[in-house]
């Protein structure tokens, strides 16, 4: 009995350690995005280089957490809710790693834009707005994961619709900008790549929030309407 209790406590500790690692990885990814946007707006090339170079840290955390999850599955053979938690972790870190890739992409586009100082750049007001929306989605998704709280899930899905609309607005604006002055086409396209990277960050944050529903309720709510998700969350 004592041995069984000890094993159970050790298993719980391992699961909690993995959860903590996910949140640590999430914090690093949030920081990467903030720094990438800050570097872009302030034309800070050294900061862009830092974001690009630090992407290996995100990749390394994904590999380590994935290995830890594999060990838990092999050694502990989790079932039911514990297995769902481990599977949620594996899926979540995949999305976090991809968000990290998008942050590095924003920094690389920023470096290209920095080389075009002779061209008047469009305002970054819209980029800053869509980035703040995407960052809030990530924060809420990680909060939902940490607290096992489904209240944020529908909010994040709704916000993803706002991010998509903001991206379409930026795209229309940049198309008009290119038509008015063809010399700005390369610059405008690079800004469009930045906006698309942020839109993809929103998609990954939405995925992460939906995984929490699976972890808590065992229901897969991917590819369903936001209204269905809201009903599931309220049940």
Automatic annotation (TrEMBL):
<dbReference type="InterPro" id="IPR028366">
    <property type="entry name" value="PhoU"/>
</dbReference>
<keyword id="KW-0592">Phosphate transport</keyword>
<dbReference type="InterPro" id="IPR026022">
    <property type="entry name" value="PhoU_dom"/>
</dbReference>
<keyword id="KW-0963">Cytoplasm</keyword>
<protein>
    <recommendedName>
        <fullName>Phosphate-specific transport system accessory protein PhoU</fullName>
    </recommendedName>
</protein>
<keyword id="KW-0813">Transport</keyword>
<feature type="domain" description="PhoU">
    <location>
        <begin position="127"/>
        <end position="212"/>
    </location>
</feature>
<comment type="subunit">
    <text>Homodimer.</text>
</comment>
<dbReference type="Pfam" id="PF01895">
    <property type="entry name" value="PhoU"/>
</dbReference>
<feature type="domain" description="PhoU">
    <location>
        <begin position="23"/>
        <end position="108"/>
    </location>
</feature>
<dbReference type="InterPro" id="IPR038078">
    <property type="entry name" value="PhoU-like_sf"/>
</dbReference>
<comment type="function">
    <text>Plays a role in the regulation of phosphate uptake.</text>
</comment>
<comment type="similarity">
    <text>Belongs to the PhoU family.</text>
</comment>
